[in-house]
């Protein structure tokens, strides 16, 4: 139902910090029709070319300034992810994604106050890294 909100097109890029490629980033919209605090993200999974990324290599941010690991996000109630605003997802991977095509799958699940199961969205895309 919410799969079209997941993994925004043309958002997958390598991330350079201090002149070094440290990983890659992608964006997603919320899998719900209202905003939620980051603590209500049930899980985020990323897979590249069929290989699952470890959760500890994933960080998230609403404005690309304050970054949280998925474990830290479990207690973050002061940052609210609003409908229509992207969530930035970074994956720590020295050297980033190699140039060429990759198959990247993003799964995002959120909790809500009145629905007893997480709302999950999945989207897999072929991305091209220059």
3D structure, described in words:
With 130 residues, the chain is mainly β. The chain has a single domain, classed as Immunoglobulin-like. The strands form 3 sheets. It has a 5-stranded antiparallel sheet. A 4-stranded antiparallel sheet has the order 5-4-10-11, with no helix packed on it. A hairpin with a 6-residue loop joins strand 6 and strand 7. The chain is globular, with a radius of gyration of 14 Å. The termini are far apart. The mean pLDDT is 95.
Structure summary:
The chain has 1 helix and 11 strands, in the order E-E-E-E-E-E-E-H-E-E-E-E. 3% of the residues lie in helices and 48% in strands.
Overview features:
four-stranded antiparallel β-sheet, 130 residues, mainly beta, single chain, 1 helix
What layout of secondary structure does this protein have?
Layout: E1 13-17, E2 20-28, E3 36-37, E4 41-48, E5 51-52, E6 58-61, E7 68-69, H1 70-73, E8 80-81, E9 87-92, E10 100-110, E11 119-129
Antiparallel strand pairs: 1-2, 2-9, 3-8, 4-5, 4-10, 6-7, 6-9, 10-11
């Amino acid at each position: 139902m919410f799969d079209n909100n997941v993994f925004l097109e043309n958002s997958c890029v390598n991330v350079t910090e201090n002149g070094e490629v440290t990983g890659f980033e992608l964006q997603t919209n919320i899998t719900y029709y209202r905003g939620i605090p980051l603590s209500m993200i049930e899980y985020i999974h990323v897979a590249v070319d069929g290989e699952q990324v470890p959760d500890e290599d994933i960080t998230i941010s609403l404005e690309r300034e304050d970054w949280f690991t998925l474990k830290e996000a479990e207690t973050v109630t002061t940052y609210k992810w609003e409908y229509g605003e992207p969530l930035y997802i970074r994956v720590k991977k020295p050297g980033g994604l190699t140039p060429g095509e990759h198959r990247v799958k993003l799964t995002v699940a959120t909790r809500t106050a009145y629905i007893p199961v997480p709302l999950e969205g999945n989207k897999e895309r072929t991305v091209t890294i220059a």
